[in-house]
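Continuing from the previous page of notes. For each protein in this section, the sequence appears first, followed by its structure tokens. Read the first protein now.
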Amino acid sequence: MTVTTQPDYRCTPSPLHAILLAGTVPLFLGALLSDIAYYNSFQIQWTNFAAWLIAGGLLFAGLALLFALANLIRADRKAGRPVMYLVLLLVTWVLGLVNAFEHAKDAWAVMPSGLVLSVIVSVLAVITAWLGLSNLRSGGAR
């Protein structure tokens, strides 16, 4: 009697994809720290720093999103963690864009919604990077 099992295909992101994905975390985290500094000091320059860091995070996340979409299109099985990773990355990018629009306001009008959005986007970026940089499986039920 022979037993045949489906192989577990592990797919790690390419080096460029990994750099772009990992780069989103410090950029969005830096924006969060800038928002916290602005909340505590009222120095308007911290909002400018946050806006630029969010723009960089959006650029990196957008390019990583393109890589994730291309990987999903090429995948044999389009379900499970790769789809969850793509959706989570898309949600991170969309909320980051809303955060960028929020940071386009003048001075204190950014607070507290900009700070709350920065917290949410930073947490999502960390979760997405953790999920994306771990081994994605396209086979099996894990």
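Done with the first. The second protein uses the same format. Note its length before scrolling.
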Amino acid sequence: MSGPETVDRVLISAAVVFVVLSGALLLFRISRGPSMLDRAIALDVFAAVVIAGLGAKSAFARDSFYFPIMLVLAFLGFTGSVGIARFIAVRDKPLSRGKPGGKEDRT
């Protein structure tokens, strides 16, 4: 193994260690999150960590087999985040104080 290949292997191994550590911390946040929004955001970040782990595995094996899987996971993570954001936006929407029809009584 040449020098650059050794450096590649060491850097990819370090990346895998960081991905595993961040995944463990995210699992802790998902289980102990103080609110549902914290848990939802942690699940979204966990999807990104899984994508990063697949990218590291793909780089380590020098194989592009996982790229379509990473693309699908990214799409699912994005749609999940948008769905959660819309749910939170509807839930936190302030109630209108006016009468139905938009006309207020000014007496």
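What the second structure shows: The chain has a mean pLDDT of 85. The two ends are 86 Å apart (CA to CA). We return to this in next week's lecture.
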